[in-house]
Amino acid sequence: MPVPARGRPNGLLLSLMAPSLLASALAQAQDSGDARTLDSVQVVADRASTATKTDTLLTETPQSIGVVTSDLFIDRGANNLQETLRYSAGVTADAWGLDTRGDASTVRGLDPVQYLDGMRKLYNFSPMARPEVYGLERVEVLRGPSSVLYGAGGAGGIINAMSKRPSFQSAGEIGLQVGSFDRRQLQGDITGALGGSGNLAGRLVGVVRDSGMQTDHIDDDRIYLAPSLTWRGERSNLTVLASYQRDRTASSQQFLPVAATLKAPPGRRLDPSTFLGDKDFDKLDARQISATVLFDHAFSDVITWRSSLRYIDSKTEFRELFPDTYSNPENPFIDADNRVLNRLSYGVKPDNRILTTDNALQFDFATGAFRHLLLAGVDYTDFREEASSFSGASTPIDIYNPVSTGVTTPEWGRLPNQRTTQTGVYVQDQIRYADRVSLVLGARRDHVRSKTQGLRDKTDNETTYRIGVIGDIGANLSPYISYSESFLPVPGQDLFGRAFEPMRGDQYETGVKWQPSRNLFATLAVYRITETNRQTNDPDNVLNTVQTGEIESKGVELEAAYVSDNDFTVTAAYSHNNAKVTRSNFTPELGKRLNDTPQDLASVWVAKGFEIGDGMKLRAGIGGRHVGSTVSTGASIVVRTPSYTLADALLELQMPSWTMALNVTNLFDKAYYAPCRNFGDCFSGNPRMVTGTVTYRF
């Protein structure tokens, strides 16, 4: 059993007993046939909802979308949301390496927007509690601009994590996990019917973790509890999801100097575990409570109403000391022996309240030879933030003997209150002809209002469009072509009080999808994305910012997955992305590769199960992932970070009621950076992580 974190109330340990209590209730409520395994999702997923907000086959979706099931990301040893995407085409999953501040992935070289259960979760760069992967069923990645259905968002696309939902088949598990850096975690997941009516089901997912991290003096502690209920009627379904999460950690990234890592002379390279902060000062404590209501009702075989509503209450305190490499990136030291660096301090305490709702009517009807799936909806979000912060200079530190002294916490200063509301009206028609050709048409109108205390209100009205066509031409090949748009409001104003225009993006994509059987799926995609109104420096006034920047991202992606009846799984992905700055007032970056963006990504994962008698099975998996080199161009310095290739492994023994699994990520403990920047700092990569999990299923 994990040791409780220091100061953790003993009452919270009752959450460890809850799975057993619920399991007993479920056993009395329903007589189950086989409760040894939880509801599973097909390894080769052939449907997704993120691309269309409807349950649509991937072969009828004219845009590239990837689906990673919990079976896959658990096998691969993922411990957070970004790690679930390490084997996905076009996704730089660990864009900033080992970083507890957030799940920072890029898609096709650009920033995506993070969603949970189809509703936006993150709205700015303020740190919040990161999703718990043990509470997820799958993760869907929609690549490219997607504002037609979801409103304001970046040109990179959408990462949509889907929470576990109640099942009417009783099943449950309790697991103990131990691993590298003193990781100890107890986890449980129980689901099944409640009562004797057969209309109500419940689920309880819980995690308690006490752990350290690669970075010295950093904890990775968590309490997560997610109860849920589902009621089903003759024509209606209602699901209520709730969650409580408390994280205690700090920034694992220490922004180690390039001069002491990538470009260090022999014998002077810092260990990636080096901590340059102060263990009594640095912290990232987050508390988040959320409640979600999902409802659908079929008025008839033609008309269905779907409604989603979620409220999030999030409080975070983040404090960090970090080395000042920015003043002189090539030589940041302040002593003759090149050992001592100045340090800077930063802190922020955001208090976020987020209300999101989405209501849509779906019409399923035919007009002659054409079958229509028409979706018409309106969604609304209300994001509010009250925050305090501080920043400034702190005490210096000897990075080769990092003893921190004399650190005091500056006074917190109140930041202007922020509020952003967005109302969007959208319509989409999926037109199917002869069960072979699908045409998707969509349009949306958004009204976004941003309020910053002390400034004039800012209003943005935007219309976005989408069109795509995909068809089955035989041999199970489905070529497609599509066009989509995005927009993202830019907060604030320039030096002269002029409000910034939204960033806009558009994508042209073509490709082909191939699914000769339900256990084999492959996609080839070629795309070009243009993102405009990027902020750049004003060449006529160093204090001003203007919007003349433009990025073009184009490339090719290949992704495939196969699973056989004898428990043999293969996934593979390759992508080449050429993202460059096509317009900018910052001359050094004009026409150059987009900073910190790899051009090539490749991965392969293979897993096989072997029957060894007496109801036991041995499973083994091995994977490799390659991330290409990056370039970071500054005013007077260009930093090139080498590519890296890492291996992951799985060894698992399955018995009738027990499973014992050993996961190893970065199998050969390769040291790497992801990436190093022209600001003079390097982001450390993830070291080898060994995790053993013992699970009892009932």
Written description of the protein model:
With 698 residues, this protein is mainly beta. The strands form 7 sheets. It has a 22-stranded antiparallel beta barrel. A 5-stranded mixed β-sheet has the order 3-8-9-6-7. A 3-stranded antiparallel β-sheet has the order 15-38-37, with no helix packed on it. A hairpin with a 3-residue loop joins β10 and β11 (183-193). It is globular, with a radius of gyration of 25 Å. The protein starts with 13 loop residues before the first helix and ends with a strand.
Number of E strands = 39
Q: Report how far apart the termini are.
A: 19 Å
Low-confidence runs of at least 5 consecutive residues: 1-43
**Backbone structural class:** mainly beta
Number of helices: 3
What fraction strand? over 45%
Helix content: under 10%
Q: Cα-atom Rg, whole angstroms?
A: 25 Å
Globally, the shape reads globular
Specify the biggest β-sheet.
22 strands, antiparallel, barrel
Mean pLDDT comes to: 91
Question: Layout of helices and strands, plus pairs?
Answer:
Elements: H1 14-29, E1 47-48, E2 56-57, E3 65-69, H2 70-75, E4 91-92, E5 106-107, E6 112-116, E7 119-120, E8 136-143, H3 147-150, E9 157-163, E10 171-179, E11 183-193, E12 200-210, E13 220-232, E14 236-249, E15 256-257, E16 283-298, E17 303-323, E18 340-341, E19 343-367, E20 370-393, E21 397-398, E22 413-414, E23 418-433, E24 437-452, E25 458-471, E26 477-488, E27 503-517, E28 520-537, E29 545-564, E30 568-583, E31 600-613, E32 616-627, E33 630-633, E34 638-641, E35 644-654, E36 658-665, E37 673-676, E38 681-684, E39 689-697
Parallel strand pairs: 6-9
Antiparallel strand pairs: 1-2, 3-8, 4-5, 6-7, 8-9, 10-11, 10-39, 11-12, 12-13, 13-14, 14-16, 15-38, 16-17, 17-19, 18-21, 19-20, 20-22, 20-23, 23-24, 24-25, 25-26, 26-27, 27-28, 28-29, 29-30, 30-31, 31-32, 32-35, 33-34, 35-36, 36-39, 37-38
